[in-house]
Amino acid sequence: MTTSDNTPDPSIPDTPPAAMTDARPQARRAEQVRRVVVVGGVAGGMSCAARARRLEESAEIVVLDRGEHVSFANCGLPYYVGGEIAAADQLLVQTPESLRAALNLDVRTRHDVVGLDPIAREVVVSTPEGVERLGYDALVLSPGAVAARPPIEGLDSPRVRTLRTVEDATALRDRVDAGATRAVVLGAGFIGLEAAEALAQQGLSTSVVELADHVLPPLDAENAWLVDEELNRIGIEVHTGTAARRIISGADADTVVLDDGTQLSADVIVLATGVRPDTRVFEDAGVACERGAIIVDEHGRTSLDGVWAVGDATVSIDPVTGIRRPVALAGPANRAGRLVADDILRPDRARPIPQPLGTAIVRVGRLTVAMTGANRAALDETGIDYRTLHLHPNQHAGYFPGAAQIHMSVHVRAGDGLVLGAQAVGLEGVDKRIDVIATAMRSRMVVADLIDLDLSYSPPYGQAKDAINLVGMVGQNVLDGTLRLWYPDELDEVRSSALVLDVRSRDEFSTGHLPGAVNIPHTELRDRLAEVRAAAGERAVRVMCASGVRSAIAHRVLTQAGFDSASLSGGTLTLRATLGHDASRVLTTAAEPAHV
Q1: Residue-wise over 214-245: b if at least 16 C-beta within 10 A, else e?
Q2: pLDDT category, 27, cuts 50, 70, 90?
Q3: Cα 393 versus chain centre, distance
Q4: C-beta of residue 557 within 8 angstroms of C-beta of residue 483
Q5: What are the residue ranges of CATH 3.50.50.60 in the chain?
Q6: Can you say whether residue 286 is alpha, beta or left, with left for phi > 0 and alpha for psi between -120 and 50 degrees?
């Protein structure tokens, strides 16, 4: 949490730098567009081409892709490796033949664009028959991204693969089917964890290596710890805070040597350390880029007249923090492709491309992990004054069989409560809640608005007070002062200067508590305020329970009795997750003195 007063406007307009706005090239009129050339297929490029055809039957639409497959389910690749998708051809969404038959698109695979001449309005293409030049009236760049290659000695080993194409997935599946037994995945982001899970499902002894201090770096640490525990449960070994230094090739297996000296044997190595925009050809031709990503305006127009760009290779502006970065997600790419086609062929009606919130979801073992908007690190980096709400509600009615907690953290702007970001981890119901919050953020709702959302309810699906409604209630209480929170990162200060009051039951207290904490169950608190006053003396009281519900009740009792009180956000569930491996060292099961 930060208390900086340097608060940027979270609705930063998605506009290009001043250098691009001078003599801004205007979109050509639809009747002038005779040939649209799209470089790169899959999400953004194919969405643009398909929309362009639906808008203009007479235009020639050519799609150039260097690969063998122009329309495939790249998000499904790990599930083919893991065996949940049985055949590789199930990953092929469309073929050049089906696209020609349905949409009259001229799709040319194994056509690699190696040059761009913006004056002549031509692209230079390397084809199986040689190099040719192809003219365009409108050019759409959708080159995507390529795997980042960190400086690891031995990275060219034939046992190292990425997981970005159908060919990659087929090669990995072939190695699994050939009897591979040990895998190392370099990188614990979305693709890395999906690959690790797939390989573990196939029976391989699997290790994950991540340079950041926790898996899934976009997650806040307390949520990442839940994922770490699940990875361990399904047998995946996790190495965080370290990186591969070198790969030593052997006859039967490679050895991956980590910075901390650990050596991991592997006959399969997956490189998933991130991606970089694949834009060198276009940057060399004069397309304005920022750290390798193509700069576009709100309609996808680049710095060159008649040239648009979409997808993973473009700069996006975070609508919450204003941070400029590429967003490598299929949803935003698909939507941007459609809107770019509109700007090319219906410029008078084209809507601007929305700034992506980065809504994402991944399965890890039994868990679902999802997020939208800004995380704590991004908010701290930009100096936005915010509050974090931790909740652990059930995904459906507690009395209905199968009730399980959703572990949620929601960041709201101090002052007005504008929702800035949210994350959730749980067995069920995670996707629904994060999607609702993403919708609320797109509508610029404040946290109190969530109280009023009329969400579907039946015992197998939710609660009368849905998890989203509860976020609104807690958030409003925090912002109007009804509830005051303290956080796990304040633990040292709290223990040294305040009385810690644990209001769980005695049995719960015995399972693990902070040394020196006073245990008074919340149902007994009103009759034992004198004990609290004697134990606290002149000190403040900091209350905690299992999830934050009972401590919030106790906080209201204490506050109205004149105590300086605050409730631990998310209770011991959040505290344990924040402490991670240190929880067993910080918490104790030892009995406290008799007066406690």
Answers
A1: bbbbbbbbbbbbbbbebbeeeebbbbbeebbb
A2: very low
A3: 22
A4: no
A5: 30-67+110-145+276-345, 160-273, 360-479
A6: left
Check pLDDT > 80 for residue 404. Answer: yes
pLDDT in tens, 168-186: 999 999 999 999 999 999 9
Neighbours of 108 (CB within 10 A): 17
Residue-wise pLDDT for 378-392, tens only, equals: 999 999 999 999 999
Chain segment 270-308, per-residue pLDDT in tens = 999 999 999 999 999 999 999 999 999 999 999 999 999
Tokens of 210: 């991540």
- The CA radius of gyration of the chain, in Å to the nearest whole number, is 27
Amino acid in the structure at residue 127: T
Kindly state the tokens that stand for 245. Answer: 């230094």
pTM of the model: 0.91
pLDDT of 22 over the 50 cut: no
The 10s digit of each residue's pLDDT in 110-140 is 999 999 999 999 999 999 999 999 999 999 9
User: What string of H, E and C letters represents the secondary structure of 513-576?
Assistant: ECCCCEECCHHHHHHHHHHHHHHHCCCEEEEECCCCHHHHHHHHHHHHCCCCEEEECCHHHHHH
Residue with tokens 């796990």: 488
Token pair, residue 484, equals 């005051």
Residue 246 contacts residue 152 (beta carbons within 8 Å) = yes
Token pair in block for residue 202: 């196939």
Helix (H, G, I), strand (E, B) or coil at 191: helix
Residue 422 has pLDDT above 50, yes or no: yes
| CATH code at 485-586 | 3.40.250.10
Residue 205 and residue 236: Cα distance in Å, rounded?
7
Placement of tokens 């002062």 in the chain: 481
- Strands 160-161 and 324-325 turn out to be unpaired
Looking at domain 30-67+110-145+276-345, its CATH superfamily turns out to be FAD/NAD(P)-binding domain (3.50.50.60)
Six-digit token string for 580: 């991670």
451 touches 473 (CB < 8 A): yes
Average of per-residue pLDDT across 395-419 = 96
CATH of 360-479, one of 3.30.428.10, 3.50.50.60, 3.40.50.920, 3.40.50.720: 3.50.50.60
Alpha-carbon gap, residue 446 to 443, rounded angstroms? 9
Cα torsion 344, 345, 347, 353: sign:
negative
Residue 10 has pLDDT above 50, yes or no: no
Q: For the domain bounded by 160-273, which CATH number is listed?
A: 3.50.50.60
In contact, 571 and 555? CB cutoff 8 Å:
no
The helix/strand count (H/E) of the chain reads as 18, 34
